[in-house]
Design brief:
By secondary structure, the chain is α+β, with helices and mostly antiparallel strands. 39% of the residues lie in helices and 22% in strands.
């Protein structure tokens, strides 16, 4: 069974917070500069980053509606789509992860929405950066499990990337028992609560594997992506 991992995140990369804020080299006033640092510190203080990881053997490959489907042994989780098939091509096992920054971050965001909209926007960006740090920590846990087997990992890939359907989320979360262990729930539109939560899969390979990413033209968020509009990319 999966166990909960608590992540001791002491710092957030400030450049990541600025990236989530849409920063592209504009001059920051000393006041705003200091304010960002204060809000980031507050986010680190209230967040409770935790996660769950499990590794499953690849049980086989199938096809549905003209798309490849990768099946994981002992689970109902199926990863459908050409982009995730390419991303996990050659994998002998797949690590599955779910992480969250905690409900306390959502509570603080609601408070700031009523008291300070500028701090709310900065806090939201800090929360996004922090939960990615938690996902990095979970990925390292999967890397350690891979190394113990003499295997190598690729990069993580989340539901909603490329053509991997967002409706993969319910089964993925159920596979990890993330509702009970982490308190992650889904809305009718498949949005996670706490909002600063991430799920992903990571391939385990017998040989060192290039860390690839979904191309923009395969991504469902390409039309509304602020980074792409600014000439940047999520892996940059």
């Amino acid at each position: 069974m999966a166990g909960v991992e608590d992540y001791q995140i002491k710092a957030i990369d400030r450049s990541e917070v600025l990236r989530y804020l849409g920063y592209s080299g504009q001059e920051l006033t000393p006041e705003l500069d200091a304010r960002i640092d204060e809000v980031v510190a507050r986010c680190l203080c209230v967040a409770r980053p935790r996660g769950v990881t499990r590794v499953f053997e690849v049980a086989g490959h199938d096809e549905r509606d003209g798309l490849p489907v990768l099946k994981l042994a002992g689970t109902a989780l199926e990863l459908a789509g050409g982009s995730v098939a390419a991303h996990l091509g050659g994998a002998v096992a797949v690590g599955v992860l779910a992480v969250t920054a905690g409900l306390t971050v959502d509570v603080e965001l609601r408070r700031l929405s009523l008291t300070d909209r500028v701090d709310e926007v900065v806090f939201d960006a800090a929360g996004s950066a922090l939960v990615e740090c938690a996902a990095d920590a979970a990925e390292k846990s999967i890397a350690a499990q891979a190394a113990a087997r003499g295997l190598y990992i690729g990069s993580r890939f989340s539901p909603g990337y490329g053509d991997l359907p967002l409706d993969t989320q319910p089964v993925l979360l159920s596979t990890l028992d993330a509702g009970r262990l982490l308190g992650i729930t889904l809305s009718s539109s498949l949005l996670m609560s706490p909002t600063k939560s991430v799920t992903a899969v990571v391939g385990l390979f017998e040989e060192p594997h290039a860390k690839g990413y979904a191309r923009c033209d395969e991504c469902r968020a390409r039309l509304s992506c602020r980074l792409r509009a600014a000439g940047r990319f999520c892996w940059d």
